[in-house]
Amino acid sequence: MTWYLLRPRPISNGMEPLAKLIGSPGRLKLLRLFLFNQDAAFTLAEAGERAKLTREVTRDECAILVASGVIRKKGTGVKAKYQTDKRFEYFGALDTFIRTTTAVQPATVLALVKKAGTLRLLVLSGIFTGSIEPQIDLLVVGDNLDERALARAVHVIEAELGREVRYASFSTEDFRYRRGVYDRLIRDVLDYPHQVVFDRIGL
Q: Long-range contacts of range 13-21, CB-CB < 8 Å, 24 or more positions apart?
């Protein structure tokens, strides 16, 4: 079994409708990053790495967000940090709007995860279903899985969501055994709201 907590990287091939409304894909990614991590402060380099944006795009978009009052800047130079400003007049409404419009389609998750090997089962839970009980958000079962490729797929999903995605991967044999002995991690996913996106095991 492999179980990771990862950080964000990018996703789409085109500008999604919300990005058009906000003004740019980069600004949308940074909005999600700051709003979903309200108590964290990031340097430009850290924000760019988390959102997988160039330094120039990160700098320009953060400047716009600071000018609008959504985030605030503390310090100067390369050590300056940026953080959500909860004093922003429309903070509550913006936070609700971004949270309720942020999603990654199951088909997109499936296409990304399939690149990691012979997929047998893919189940979405946690942040994908709005359930807070499960310990993981993504359950992956497959054979000959390339863990690095799987990690890259999760990074891509995280950048779009603007938040960390907890996932666990198992071989088919290991999963069958754990399910048979009522493994707590497996039960945490299957006993709570979840979505089976791909199933070649017969769940």
A: 18/101
Which domains are delineated in the chain?
Answer: 17-101 (1.10.10.10), 104-199 (3.30.460)
| 130 Rama class: left (phi>0) / alpha (psi -120 to 50) / beta | left
d(CA 58, CA 12): 17
| Rounded to 5°, angle at Cα 192 from 104 and 184 | 110
Structure tokens at 141: 């079962």
pTM here is 0.67
**Chain segment 142-162, per-residue pLDDT in tens:** 999 999 999 999 988 888 888
Contact 169, 6 (CB under 8 A): no
